[in-house]
Sequence to fold (73 residues):
Amino acid sequence: MKLAVGTVVEGKIVLQGEPLREGAVVTVLAREDDETFELTAELELELTQSLAEAARGETVGADEVLRRLRKTR
Fold:
């Protein structure tokens, strides 16, 4: 899994850095005009590590997440 940043130009997303492979399926998270999104180096590393865990299949199912949330109430 990769994290990519881009800008919409004439209705298309233009990515910074290396292009993704042709046919890659992507999810786009767009901030609102008045929102900012900044990560410290530490948080960026944590996000990258979390994406790598997900890519390896090291995830927790929704049922388990909901069970854990119910326990903390």
